[in-house]
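The passage that follows is intended for readers who have already worked through the single-chain material. We present the inputs for a multi-component assembly, then the predicted structure in tokenized form, and finally a short commentary. You are encouraged to pause after the input and sketch how you expect the pieces to fit together before reading on.
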Amino acid sequence: MQKVILLIMDGLGDRPIKELGNKTPLEAAHTPNLDALAARGICGMQNAIGVGQRPGSDTSHLAILGYELDKYYTGRGTIEVSGLGMDLEEGDVALRGNLGTVDDSLVTVDRRAGRIADTGPFVKDLDGLTYEGVTLHIKPGTGHRAGIILRGPGLSSRISDNDPHEVGVKVHEVHPLDGSAEAAFTAKVLNHFLNRAHEILKDHPLNEERRKEGKPPANYLLCRGAGYYKKIEKFSERYGLKACTIAGGGLYKGIGAFTGMTVLKVPGATGMANTDISAKFEAAIEALAGGFDFAFVHVKAADAFGEDGDFQGKKAFIEKIDRAAGTLLNLPHTLLVVTGDHSTPCALKKHSGDPVPLMMVGEGLVRPDHVAEFGERACARGGLGRLTGLMIMPEIINLLGLAPLIGD
Amino acid sequence: MQKVILLIMDGLGDRPIKELGNKTPLEAAHTPNLDALAARGICGMQNAIGVGQRPGSDTSHLAILGYELDKYYTGRGTIEVSGLGMDLEEGDVALRGNLGTVDDSLVTVDRRAGRIADTGPFVKDLDGLTYEGVTLHIKPGTGHRAGIILRGPGLSSRISDNDPHEVGVKVHEVHPLDGSAEAAFTAKVLNHFLNRAHEILKDHPLNEERRKEGKPPANYLLCRGAGYYKKIEKFSERYGLKACTIAGGGLYKGIGAFTGMTVLKVPGATGMANTDISAKFEAAIEALAGGFDFAFVHVKAADAFGEDGDFQGKKAFIEKIDRAAGTLLNLPHTLLVVTGDHSTPCALKKHSGDPVPLMMVGEGLVRPDHVAEFGERACARGGLGRLTGLMIMPEIINLLGLAPLIGD
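Having made your guess, compare it with the prediction:
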């Protein structure tokens, strides 16, 4: 059977930039390998959610991997805690957490407690707290981060963040976002845990040490992005493909874990501009040789350059991807699918709903079109036309010859 | 913030016409300004409702303005009475009305009572009639027309027209179009009002005068297009854009009023071929300079030429639009969106479901494609691909950088 590599370059799409001769960073970049792939493949444009719809990083990936948002997406928390290796159970509410610093009036002084390197010794004293039948499960993430699960009956993810998302203001009370008893109950329980956590953390011996060292104490748990966990059909069961994830960023590992893929550890994959892209591509090729059928490879930094408005950096990073992509040119028995999750135009410095280029390359599988350049405007003339994210996995399955017959 | 002009040329699309060298009227027309805009913008094709779907003038505009038909459209009546400045309340049933002439056997002699110029003195004697808890509100429209509202509990728009839409036949009884008690009740109430109206009108002193002058009496109220009013989210609230409507035709002013836009009065805007298109474009530019964010500009007559099968007239009218469009060439900070509401092929002499060209022009906002001609076949190769009406407003909001984030 043919294998699949799905390469997603985060925030890939952009708008014409005067300083780049009215080209986008992707169009302006020197990308001989991506262009050669485009010439061999069939190209098009896709909006992960829909025309004009502006996707988050979590929703865009779920859609591209074939998961309907109304059925599978309730908030980012479930995906983030999956990425930390925490097991979710039906009915759990999961949140992203930071350890931060507040003063005696609960005003936020530092949302990351001086970018504390390890929250482990703090959060272990919070893990397992219980209140009204609900247990708090908490695990350290990278740096100041932590994953939080509320487990018990009658919970809802329709609650607000206590994280004020800025310093100099008081931490928020969590409040319900709808009129349900479940949301009110969940807000009450979480507020209780947050108060208890503050009591435990403010006098924590390690914070005494931090104070002596002149560091801000890690004395408050800031939460955001509550998600409700409903059992999700694993990617391998959904498509009959044994799948792995190769990513540096936590959210993308989370997407892999959340959809039941094996998340591979790749040395040098950082989720930042310094990432070792060649190592990621090599890891994907090895994984497919070693028994996996599908490798989801995520490369993050183009998005970050877009959010900084740094079009030269974005262009240079795309060229770095292209150099590594030489190894993808001659993969036997492999369908290579390359796209972005959304556009992050440098002029907007944020995600947008502009469509992103998409190419599918596989000898004998696709009908190569006349497009010989991997870019926004070149691909808009391609044979795939204009797709949505939810169309991509069915098309991959179809190209592999694995699509179920509808009818008789 | 960038401003928006949405220019809709009614009935714009067409089919190849042998006498025009197998070009459509738009393709055959000399349109240097529209072509220059196409060259600067991104082009595509759109079907207001969907591929192969043949839209009315009301439904096509609602869809292009982003209103889902199953949620917001129940009949043309609500839109027409909105255009007359009548305020609708939730649960109202609104109809379009004519004052017509019937003989003693209620056979229609003239559907427009000799194109009577003013129905005001007649309809004021009908306004405020009540029956079984329902009040009849009626207001004169232009010429022989009137707007009709039934207000009271338990009404339905699922009723037939009494207007037979032809002369020489008896006016119809209104009958329910479904088995509901509400439709039966509404038909009963409206039939009562129509009988009362005939009694009041047939002996009206002004009709005595008309008979003496040899004019057909305005002695019957002909109704059609019942619509049920549910509160509609205003355009400005839906999109955060302060919007105005510039149109000559009553229906299009009605679309503006129905969606809560400010309907501007523009001298010379007639909704016919003699309309002052330059005045309309100037009014749009002034409105945007004066505080509006979004100007919906409607130009009608291409549709009428299509319905007459007059392809030379349609071509000439499109050239008239193009001459006026010179003022749209260099608008600063403006996203210009140009399309039609539907095709009205001269060969069919009626609306069709053929897609219409669409272009979006705005420096730095869109990715200009290679299309340099505003025409059916040129735009079919454009970078926007093939859209539906409901995709247009989300894409406009996205291009402005105002789209809400879906996910995180």
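Commentary: Chain B has a mean pLDDT of 96. The first strand of chain B starts at residue 3 and ends at 9. How closely did your sketch match?
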